Amino acid sequence: MNARFVIIGCICAFLSVLFGAFGAHSLKDALPPNMLANFQTGVQYQMYHGLGLILIGFASAYLPNSSSLNKAGWSMLIGIVLFSGSLYVLSMTGVTMLGAITPFGGVAFLLGWLLFINAARKNIKK
């Protein structure tokens, strides 16, 4: 088991709940609905990929010595920082140029899932 990804995933999930509560209670009246929706999208994707990191951590016990699995974990973490992070900052500052960063985070998420698939595929017994 790769405890590093389990811990990082748990921290991301914890922060997602914290940010979600902050958005629901503190930002509800402070942000326009479209910016609040952007913030909540960041929260949702952070939670999904935090859980993905936990899954990768546990999967490493069954898919040993997989460089693809390690790369998948780091790719998901980069995705959280770029995708969710840019949406948080965009929604709270209104700096729309930050929206240009968000797709790079989405690509990192997709790459992470593809690398996870590749790690599993390599371990299929023929």
TrEMBL record:
InterPro entries: DUF423
Source organism: Paenibacillus baimaensis
Transmembrane helix keyword on record: yes
Compartmental location: Membrane
Entry protein name: DUF423 domain-containing protein
PANTHER family recorded: TRANSMEMBRANE PROTEIN 256 (PTHR43461:SF1)
Keywords, in A-Z order: Membrane, Transmembrane, Transmembrane helix
Transmembrane portions of the chain: 47-65, 72-91, 97-117
Topological category with respect to the lipid bilayer: Multi-pass membrane protein
Pfam families per record: DUF423
Family: Belongs to the UPF0382 family.
Primary site of residence: membrane
Any coiled-coil regions, as ranges: none
